[in-house]
Amino acid sequence: MPTSKLEDGGWLHPSRLPLGGGWSGYCCAPGHEGAEPTNQELRELCNLGYAAGCPRLPAERTCDAVRFSIASDRGVQLLMWFVYESGHRPAGHGMLEYDLLLGQWTSPHSDARIQKMAECYLQSYLLRRIRPTTTAGFASSLTTP
Questions:
Q1: Residue 14: which pLDDT band, with cuts at 50, 70 and 90?
Q2: Where exactly are the structural domains of the chain?
Q3: 3-class DSSP assignment, residue 133
Q4: 27-45 burial: b if 16+ Cβ within 10 Å, else e
Q5: Of 14, 63, 119, 134, which residue is least crowded by CB atoms under 10 Å?
């Protein structure tokens, strides 16, 4: 369960991670609730989506990973896709909706764990949205006379 942004996880492209960046947090696996993953587990397992090497990973689970993406950014309304994966294949999907003016989800996920991950992805997305990458700033400076 992600709880706080992990700024220095050592990933080459953190925005490509399933939650749009690295996060620290605690484990929700049955029998291990609240256990804190090591920095190595966070870097190599938890933040990558698939944690097959994790000794706490339950054998019986509904999915192996959840992926998020913005389906539509209408300025004040964001539509977010989520896809469950099992065995590296799609195993379900759905859409969530967030209203930026109200600052709330108009269609949240019913599973609190998935909802928390969606909130983390949204936070990462909004940070990138308001803070353009340095490459974009560099490219726009090339076109300015």
A1: confident
A2: 2-131
A3: coil
A4: beeeeeeeeebeeebbbbb
A5: 134
Cα distance between residue 10 and residue 4, in whole Å: 16
Burial 74-97 (b: 16+ CB within 10 A, else e): eeeebbbebebbeeeeeeeeeebe
Contacts (Cβ under 8 Å, ≥6 apart) of 128: 15, 20
pTM equals: 0.83
Q: How many helices (H) and strands (E) in the chain?
A: 3, 6
* Cα(63)–Cα(83) distance, integer angstroms: 10
How do residues 59-106 score in pLDDT, each as one tens digit?
888 888 899 999 999 889 999 999 999 888 999 999 999 999 999 999
User: Using CA atoms, how far apart are residues 124 and 70, in angstroms rounded to an integer?
Assistant: 11
Where is 84: in which H helix or E strand?
strand 77-86
Enumerate the β-bridge partners of residue 67: 83
- By CB atoms closer than 10 A (0-12, 13-18, 19+), residue 124 is buried
